[in-house]
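User: Design a sequence. Structure:
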């Protein structure tokens, strides 16, 4: 495993943030992986997502948003999109031979999706969103995914069947507009933080192994 830690500029007003590049032997793709609102790139779930990718020959670049790097309130949309854009640019510079994909957990995936819809991520050939936060808890809506049809590249969305931030019925109208470009996979008995209800889950497969294997299948078919 090749590992490289590096600071990069997130936004002119916010300074540098941390990143870690991990490239397993035989890697064929590089996933630029953004963290959620509640924890940074070193959270165990982010590490397990990265490890699941590495097991499928997918390198990862994890990075911090400024609010997580230094603490304080969440960044503006402009700062967040700038951070995503600069992280993707860094990934392309570090590993120019690898196919570039991007995404993230929850908030990080949402920010990446907005940047994608605004055509800010030119080199990216596909997107993977983990636990996409379709709406706030207790406030069902699909407003946060209204921009999805503006994303031209293939999309893979993972959502837990017990995730209170994703109502599948509300996502259906958007998914119907994107049948040729968007794939959604429901993780049985899994919540927003990848916790599993062992009593109801119909498979013994580890949820992160499931995510890694399905991401590999999706990449091979696109």
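Assistant: Done.
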């Amino acid at each position: 495993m090749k590992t490289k830690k590096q600071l990069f500029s997130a936004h002119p007003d916010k300074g540098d943030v941390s990143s870690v590049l991990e490239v397993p032997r035989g890697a064929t793709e590089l996933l630029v992986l953004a963290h959620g609102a509640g924890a940074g790139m070193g959270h165990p779930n982010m590490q397990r997502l990265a490890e699941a990718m590495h097991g499928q020959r997918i390198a990862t670049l994890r990075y911090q948003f400024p609010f997580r790097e230094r603490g304080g309130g969440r960044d503006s949309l402009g700062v967040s999109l700038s951070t995503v854009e600069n992280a993707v640019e860094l990934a392309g510079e570090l590993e120019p031979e690898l196919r570039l994909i991007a995404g993230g957990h929850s908030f990080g995936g949402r920010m990446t999706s907005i940047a994608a819809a605004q055509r800010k991520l030119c080199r990216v050939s596909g997107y993977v969103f983990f636990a996409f936060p379709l709406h706030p808890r207790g406030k069902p809506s699909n407003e946060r995914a209204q921009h999805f049809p503006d994303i031209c590249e293939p999309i893979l969305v993972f959502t837990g069947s017990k995730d209170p931030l994703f109502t599948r019925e509300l996502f259906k109208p958007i998914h119907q507009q994107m049948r040729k470009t968007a794939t959604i996979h429901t993780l049985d008995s899994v919540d927003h933080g990848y916790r599993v209800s062992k009593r109801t889950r119909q498979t013994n497969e580890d949820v992160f192994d499931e995510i890694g294997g399905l991401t590999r299948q999706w990449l091979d078919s696109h």
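The two ends are 26 Å apart (CA to CA). The longest strand covers residues 2-11.
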